[in-house]
Amino acid sequence: MENLKEKVAYITGGSKGIGFGVAQKLLEAGMKVAISGRTLQTVQKAAAQLGDDSRVLAISSDVSKLRDEEEAVKKIIGKWGQIDVVIANAGVGNFAPVDEMTETEWHQMINTNLNGVFHTLKASVEALKKSKGYYMTLASLAGTNFFANGAGYNATKFGVVGFTQAAMLDLRKFDIKVTTIMPGSVATHFAGNQPDDKDAWKIQPEDIGQMVVDLLEIHPRTLPSKVEVRPSRPDKK
């Protein structure tokens, strides 16, 4: 997919943070972009910041519900006739010792972080077969490195990594490329953070966006199926 002009991308959790940064870079590369989130007003506000409605589509979808993702895909195809790239980015994090974590916190992460990536792919895979497209998940270094208070989050991100790598093997016979991106610390609103100058040492959302563009533009014969990325100098906090 070396020429991105007029290609169509769908980004879940695209109203802020990594999803928003990816949307910006894909639009700069000449693509059309649909972004989704659970609250339509919030997504519409983000879409207005990104560009006009000829190139940006705001969609309300809860990735924990397959029906929502199926409706999102229908809206995108109805508007632009195709989907070439899907970025499963939506995610939540609840951090507590395993003996203190509530059932609600656990299932919220499983339903969004893990079930969500399956629902997004399930809803879009036939469109990706037609376009010989690209499916990416946003996992985390928490998908390979476990830590205290992270039992639920680790479980989902280890799952996302495993799911994506297996999906890569299943789908490459259709000429669909599949990658999981595993960032370390990113300057986002995740887990209640308010990005400001203190986060300058972290990966920035637009850095992940540029990485997505680079992955899309690499020669089709080459597939970086799992990409770990971390701050260059965490000691500069």
Walk me through what this model shows:
The structure is a single chain. This protein has 237 residues and is an alpha/beta fold. The protein is 43% helix and 15% strand. The protein has helices spanning 17-28, 40-50, 66-80, 103-131, 151-171, 205-217, and strands at residues 8-12, 32-37, 56-60, 85-88, 134-138, 177-183, 226-229. The chain has a 7-stranded parallel beta sheet, sandwiched between helices. Helix 1 (17-28) packs across helix 6 (205-217), helix 3 runs parallel beside helix 4 (103-131) and helix 4 packs parallel to helix 5. The longest helix has 29 residues, at 103-131. The N and C termini lie far apart (37 Å).
Task: Please state how the strands of the largest beta sheet are arranged side by side.
Answer: 3-2-1-4-5-6-7
Structural class: alpha/beta
Number of helical segments with 4 or more residues: 6
Beta percentage is: 15-25%
Spatial separation of the terminal alpha carbons: 37 Å
The largest pleated sheet is described as:
7 strands, parallel
User: How much helical structure, as a percent, in the residues?
Assistant: 40-55%
Order of helices and strands: EHEHEHEHEHEHE
Radius of gyration: 17 Å
| Parts with pLDDT < 50 across at least 5 consecutive residues | none
Form type: globular
Average pLDDT level: 94
Total number of strands: 7
List keywords for this structure.
43% helix, 7-stranded parallel β-sheet, 237 residues, 6 helices, 7 strands, alpha/beta
